[in-house]
Amino acid sequence: MSSNRFSPSPRRTATRCASYAAALALGLSLTAAGLTGCSTASRPPASAGPAVSTSVSAPAPGVDGRERLTVGDGTREYLTHRPAAEGGGPRPLLIAFHGRGADAEQLRRQSGLDKAAEARGMLLVYPEALGKGWGAGTAATAQRPDPDADVRFTEALIAELVRTGRADPHRVYVAGFSNGGSMALRMAAQRPDLVAGAASVSGELPTGAAAVKPTGPVPVLIVYGAEDPVRPLAGLPAPGPAAPGEEPITATVSARASAEAFAAAGGTGGPAEEGKPGYDSVTWPAGPAGAEVRLLVVHGAGHTWPGSTMPPPAGFGSVSTALDASGTLLDFLTAQKR
């Protein structure tokens, strides 16, 4: 496998950054990654018991539902999809974070995760972000003065689903696209005792003032387009400006550096690289802690969800059909248990 698939040349990186700036200028901010948010501590404080209440329109089995959860002074909504099969007790839970500028329903349509989760008997939850973006980084902004709010909300959401007997606390997984992928990585990095595995599509770990660093072993899968023009494979060390009034774009390390950070935290073995039809795979085998890390770089793919049937916005690049990202990430995650 050629090493340049994971380390694009400066010229290619510059071209991608230029394309990214052009996309922003056109208002294509659906999935610009990693909103900042943050404390100076590497691990945000655990929730100190905020008031939590729910307003639930309980869905019938196999039918989508929309529910609400109040944490502190804020009420958030989330979509649910329960498997059609009854019984079996608490289900494996996947929390799926949408991209910046998008919403829960868009990720549902883009990813096709409902069908993949249904086949595996999983409970699937798509939370709605505040301002259509997640605090995936650790630097406060004018728009997001409480950088840890999304971490606490996710903790409270998981606790509620476990409390009501719907979710298995030992099989809680997080995933997401773009900014939502970075949010999933933040949860894995800062709450390794809470999630059994994480997957990110087109999302990387924030760096700089908003840096997120893994604090313990967690199995992680990162799926990335080799030709991503919005959030480059090589990372985005110097993001362009956000539109007036919008939260700043967060700098990120490369997809490979993101995977390597989790591999180091998990004490994995050395990387094994392999070329597959349509994509390249790098696997850091599980060490004593049992946390395998895997990076899949999809040839010709842009800032898109591989295998999706939903056309991406102009300027986001191509959708690859060489990989079914939804089935691949669920197979990876459901093999993990905390």
TrEMBL record:
Residues 40-69 are annotated as: Disordered. Residues 1-32 form the signal peptide. InterPro entries: AB_hydrolase_fold, Plant_Biomass_Hydrol_Est, PLipase/COase/thioEstase. Keywords: Hydrolase, Signal. GO terms for molecular function: hydrolase activity. The keyword Manganese does not apply. The keyword DNA-binding does not apply. This is Dienelactone hydrolase family protein. It comes from Streptomyces flavotricini. The lineage of its organism: Bacteria, Bacillati, Actinomycetota, Actinomycetes, Kitasatosporales. Pfam families: Abhydrolase_2. Residues 154-233 form the Phospholipase/carboxylesterase/thioesterase domain.
